[in-house]
Structure formats: structure tokens, C-alpha cells
Amino acid sequence: MTAKRADTMDLQQRLSSNPLLVIARIRETGIILVILLLVLAVSLRSPSFLTLSNFRDILLNISILIIVALAQTMVILTKSIDLSVGSMIGLTAMMVSFIIKQYPEFSPLAAILLGMAVGSVLGLFNGLIIAYGEVPPIIATLGTLSIYRGMIFLYSGGTWINAFEMSKSFKLLAKGTILGVPHLVYIAFGVSVLVYFLLNHTRLGRNIYAIGSNPDAAQFVGIPKKHIIFAVYLLCGIACGLAGVLWASRFESAQTNTALGFELQTVAASVVGGVSISGGVGTVPGVLLGALLLGIIQNALTMIRISPFWQLAIQGLLILLAVVVDNLISREMQRSVRQWNR
Amino acid sequence: MESLDSSQPVPAPSTLSDKPPRRSIWRWFQRWEWMLFALILVVTFLNARLSPFFLNAQNLSRTSSDFMEMGLMMLSMTFIIITGNIDLSVASNLGMCASFMGWLFNNGVNIWVAALAALVLGTLGGLLNGALVAKLKLPALVVTLGTYAFFRGMAYVLLGDQAARGYPASFTYLGQGKLPGTLIPFSVALFAFLAMIFGLVLHKTTFGRYLYAIGNNEKAARYSGIPVDNIKMIIFTLSGFMSALAALIMAARFGSTRPDIATGMELSVITAAVLGGVDINGGIGTMVGAALSLILIGLMKFGMGLLNIQGQVQGIAIGLLLIFSILLPRLSGQIGRKSAFSRKTFVYAAGIILAFVLFFAFFFWSRAPILLGG
After folding, report:
1. Where are the domains of chain A?
2. Residues of chain A positioned with their CB less than 8 A from the CB of B326
3. Which residues of chain A from 195 to 234 reach within 8 Å of chain B, CB to CB?
4. Which domain range does residue B204 map to?
5. Residue B236 lies in a domain
6. A24 with A273: CB under 8 angstroms?
7. Transmembrane segments in this chain: where (chain B) (predicted)?
8. Given the DSSP bridges, would you call strands A177-178 and B164-165 parallel, antiparallel or unpaired?
9. pTM tops 0.90, yes or no
């Protein structure tokens, strides 16, 4: 960020002729290495860890996380953050489940569309107050975190929806399988491809990175900063709406505390996956690996019978470790840029 | 926070217009603190009309101690936010300290020794935050998000699904007792005393001036010889200590400790500070404002509680208050500029309003049958 960049063409050249790219690659290979070591260690302790069905369980467990973490990543890339994702998921899950209970013949696909519509309105509100109202992102989404969570209570009156109140077709939405792979995994894969395409091959994606790496420069070259920030919050809301429907289907229930604290996991997956909290840096494959690492750790803890109470503490340590490593890398990067300039 | 701020410097709540400050009585009355004072009067009046139990000295005395843990953490949070940083880990630190104390107590350690150990642990937790922020130059937001999970995780590791209870009466006095011969709870007196000290430090000492200087322009502060890193270490460590102190008060007030104690309280703490006119971008804010907003939030919650509104639904009101306390001053500045209203914006605005109307129509339509039909 502090390095002076004359123009973008020059930057492109630098990136390819420089240890920069090598270091960026180390990030992903670093996570892969950690994952391999972890898998090796756990499978020595517990033979049932390295089985196909366990691997499918892990994928099933991280699919929703992937969807939301990618949306969170888009937000973080613009130097913002969305702490309200857990509440948006919970509210969508509750509202869609109420509809499913009242109209058992409601088609699962329509439920997904309904959920995304609900999520888009929630994201719309976030986007409005942050992009156009200029409320700092952390304050705005801390506020909507409690507003949306409160709305779940207001909506449900404290009741919840159980598995027997949901239609079979709705429950199959997440868990039904095609060729032995759950629908949820396909959906997460589809979202990943979409986000990858959006970030790397569209103008919106380029603008998202531009705003994150240098907001002032982005504004000078005429990038509509406010509209872009509005767009990422809207997209994040839609993704959370989708995730909410899938959550209700996957866990066959909607409760007032559905997805409580989930924002932490999404930020953890992004940050562990190499997304910089100060914006502009991060890739889709990195986030997928970050989510996979979180999922494997969660699974491994149960496999080697460590108390689940450790999970939260380990997640926290992972975030801290990831930012410390990131910090060391970026210092190294700046040094190499300085050397190149000389 | 610097890293997350996507907006230009904007008028903060404490200066309601763009004009340079003039020293006149009228301007003095335009300060945000008077706004809070007026809101407190309005809330008091409304609550007194709505519930006969509101203006009752016993009730007010009892309810005031409910907000003191929040208040204690708010004092140090104000310091941190004024420097342009944030500490999301305060409530988790509280949980860790309370659980640590409970765990020691369950294992037969004297309660006062356990309390002292908890104070040390909380301070160390704050020191960890401070070291990562000041020495490694990491953004406070992500560091404290990490320790937010880590500290709360340690609380669960320590106590698991157990609870600690059976604290002696001499200890529970910290949270439940009143000053002899009065209705003033001990915790309120402690808060008032500390608030005064924090206020004096903030407004009357060099250290306080340094905090504003860092919040206004950290680089300039650094170049003018202010020990920025050490000050950050001090305020984060202080925040850890205040969290631990709040942990003692809260454990004493409940008479028991579970690892999920004070979950989500960081939101209330930050809300109280920001609503009090402390600018989240740093450099602006007063201790009087923060204390007034604590009173306002306390009265609002107490009043809503008397009206049987659930705690989670109260969160809607607090969240809206937080957002609109920042949004309204900024909007009032924007409306003056005519360029904002073109035909295009009108169409978009209509679309957005339609989306919200549809949403709420669906919201209330879809919940009605289930709640009525059982």
C-alpha cells in the first residue's frame, strides 16, 4: 500500500518479474502444506479419518461456510467488513422455514429464490447506510447484527421450526445427492466458480480490488466507489439469503440462535485463506483452502476426541497466526519492492 | 480502524455542522452531550408515563448496577476508540477472567486469591492485544477479533458445561451490595469514581492529549515525538484490566459463573461509547458524553424491560439508535447539497422504498397465521 505505483501497466510488469508473485504463491502452498500435515497427523491417530465418507462429511460441513466466506471476502476486499452475516442467515432461515411449514408443497427452488430475495433486502439496508450514509462498516454491521437478530425474535415470537414441520422435498434440498455428492457441495462449487469469475473476469471484480488497494486512486480514475461498496453488501446479503435456506434444510430446523457467531468463522476462513483485512488482497482458491482447513480442524477435533470446547479457542489462535504470518509476508513484499525500485 | 474506514472524514456527532466552531453560548448548547441529555429526559418522561414502576428509587437502584460492567469496559473503550482503534475482545476477556476465577474457586482456591489471579489474567490478555497491535503493527480489528474467539474459547475450555457458584457473601458484595446507609450500589460508586478518574486523565493530562493526537493523525503524532506504540500498549492493557474488573463485578452480581457470561456485550460497550459522541474514526469524544449515553441506554433497556420486551428485541432499538445517531448528522449535511437529487436517484430511491415495503409486508403477513394459530 505504501509503495508508489506510477501506473497499472508498470505494476503488472513488476508483479510478474518479481519475488512478489512467488510469495503470493507460497501463501496457498503454505495452507496446503498445513492441511497435509494435519491430515497425516490425524490419520495416524484415527484410521477412520482418511475415508471417503469422512471427506464427504467435511465437504458437506464447509459448503455453507464457503458460500458466506466468499461473500465476506468480496466485502473485505473493499476494505470493509460485514459482521451481520450470522444474523442475516438466521433471519432468512427462520422466515423461509415459516413459509415451508405453512405451505408444505412450496417448491425448494422457490424457497431458495425467496431466501435470496429476503437476504437481498437485508444486504440492501447494510449497503445503503454504509455506502451512501457513510456509516463506518464495523459500526453499521454491528448494529444490524443485533437488529436482524432481534427481528428473528420479533418474527418467531421465540418459537422455532422443527424437522417434522418441514416438507421432505425441502429437507432433501441440501442433503439429496447426485452421484454420491450432496447438492450442497454442488451449490458451493457453483458459487465459488461464480465469485471467481466475478472477481477475475468482470469490471466489477477489478473495481473491487482497485477500491481495496487504493481507495483514493480508485476514485481519481473514476471508479464509482459508493456504488461498488453498495454492490458488495447487496451481494453479501443475497449470499447469506441463499446460505440461510440451505442452513434450514441442512440442519432441518430454524431456531432463534441459528448461525449465531457465524460471522467469526467467515472472517476466519477469509483471513486464514490469505485475504488481507486492509483490503485489496485475496483470492478465491485461498479462501476455499482456508475454509477447508477450518473444516478439517473441526472434524479432526471430534475424530481424536478432543473436547469441542477447544474449537473456538483454536479458531481464534488460527486467526491470530494467520494475520501475524500475513504481516511478515507483506513486510517482506514491501522490502522486495523497495529493492526493485532501486 | 483506519484500515477499514471507507469514508472521508465527516462531521462527527459532537460538531453538528461544518462551520468552524465559534465560542458562543448557542454553539455550546449545540454539543452532542445536550442532545443526549434531552434524549434522557424524553426517555424518562415516556417511561414514567408507560409504567408506574419506572420512577421508583428501589427499582432504579437495582437496575443501575446491571449496567456497571458495561460501563467499566466503556471507560477504557473510549480511550481506545479515541485513538482510532477498537477492542472487540472485551466481553470475551470478561468471560475468560470470570471463568478462570470460577475454575480456581471450584478447585478450592480462596476467592480473593482467585479474583486477584483473574485480574492478572485479564491484564495479560489486554497486553497480548496491545503487543500485537502496537509492536507487530497489526490492525486492531482483526487482532481483537482473533482474541475475541480465543478468550471466549478459553472460557469454555476452563469451565466447559459446568458453572461455578457458591461465592461467599463478602465477595458477592462487589456486585450486589450497597454503600452502607444509602441506596447506591457499590458497583455504581466504583464506576462513578473510575469514570471521574478516566475523565480527568482524558481531558486534563498530557496522556489524554496524546490520545486525541494519535486519533487525529497517527503519523503526525509519531513524528512529533509522542510514544504512540507505548500508549497503544498501555490502553489495550488497561482495557484488559477493566474487563477483568468487570468480570469480578459481574460474577459477584450473578453469584455464579458460566463460560458464556457477557456474550455479545462488546456490542453494547461500543454502542455506548459511539452513541456518546466518540467518533469511531478517532480523535473526537468526551467522557461526559460516553457516561450520558450509558445512562440513556440503561434507562431505555430498563423501560423496555418493564414493558416486557425481550432482551433480543431490545437489541433492535439499541442497534437502530446506534446507526441513526451516526447516520442522521451525516444525512443532514448531505441534504443541503442539491446535486444529490436527480431523476435517476429518484427512481432508485423509489425502488429501494418499494423493496423495504414488500419486505415488511411479507415479514408481518407470513408470521401472522402461525403465531395466531399456535
Report:
1. 55-259
2. 133, 135-136, 139
3. 211, 215, 225, 229
4. 2-6+28-340
5. yes
6. no
7. 34-55, 67-86, 109-128, 140-159, 179-202, 233-255, 261-280, 287-307, 313-333, 345-365
8. unpaired
9. no
What is the grid cell recorded at B350?
423509489
DSSP three-state, residue A36: helix
For B151, nearest residue in chain A (alpha carbons): A313
Chain B CB contacts of A152 under 8 Å are 312
B96-147 per-position pLDDT tens digit? 999 999 999 989 889 999 999 999 999 999 999 999 999 888 889 889 989 9
> Do B210 and B359 fall within a single domain?
no
Decide if A57 contacts A299 (C-beta within 8 A): yes
User: Which residues in chain B are closer than 8 Å to A140, comparing Cβ atoms?
Assistant: 323
Write the residue in B139, B153, B356 that is nearest to A316 by C-beta.
Answer: B153
Question: Residue A225 in contact with residue A150, Cβ under 8 Å?
Answer: no
Residue A3's pLDDT is what?
A: 47
Same domain, yes or no: B368 and B332: no
A–B interface: beta-carbon pairs under 8 A: 197
| Nearest partner of A176 among A113, A238, A241, A252, judged by Cα | A252
Domain count, chain B: 2
Residues A77, A275 contacting (CB under 8 angstroms): yes
Per CB-CB distance under 8 Å, the chain B contacts of A134 are 7-8, 10, 330
Contacts of A7 (CB under 8 A, 6+ apart): none
Asked if B117 and B135 touch (Cβ cutoff 8 Å), the reply is: no
Q: What is the pLDDT of residue B15?
A: 44
Residues B145 and B126 in one domain: yes
B53 lies in a domain? yes
Same domain, B281 and B211: yes
Nearest CA in chain B to A150: B313
Q: Where on the phi/psi map is residue A160: left (φ > 0), alpha (ψ -120 to 50), or beta?
A: beta
For residue B16, tell me if it sits in a domain.
no
Q: What is the pLDDT of residue B16?
A: 46
Q: Residue B368's closest chain A neighbor by CA?
A: A155
Instruction: Give the whole-angstrom CA distance, residue B322 versus residue B334.
Output: 19
**Burial class of residue A239, CB neighbours in 10 A (0-12, 13-18, 19+):** buried
Same domain membership, residue B363 and residue B336: no
Q: Does residue A30 carry a pLDDT above 80?
A: no
Whether A279 contacts chain B with CB within 8 A: yes
Report chain B's mean pLDDT, rounded to a whole number: 84
Closest CA to B141 of A64, A132, A312, A136: A136
In chain A, what residues touch B320 (CB-CB under 8 Å)? 143, 147
Residues B300-329 have pLDDT tens digits of 888 888 888 887 888 888 888 888 888 877
Does residue B304 lie within any of the structural domains? yes
Question: CB contact, 8 Å: A277 with chain B?
Answer: yes
Nearest-neighbour CA in chain A from B9: distance (Å):
10
Phi and psi at B257, nearest 5°, equal: -135, 130
Nearest alpha carbon to residue B316 among B363, B254, B251: B363
The answer to whether residues B154 and B269 belong to one domain is: yes
According to DSSP, residue A83 is labeled: T
Claim to verify: residue B349 and residue B276 sit in the same structural domain: no
- Same domain for B368 and B271, yes or no, is no
Minimal C-alpha gap between A8 and chain B (Å): 22
Q: Is A271's CB within 8 Å of B142's CB?
A: yes
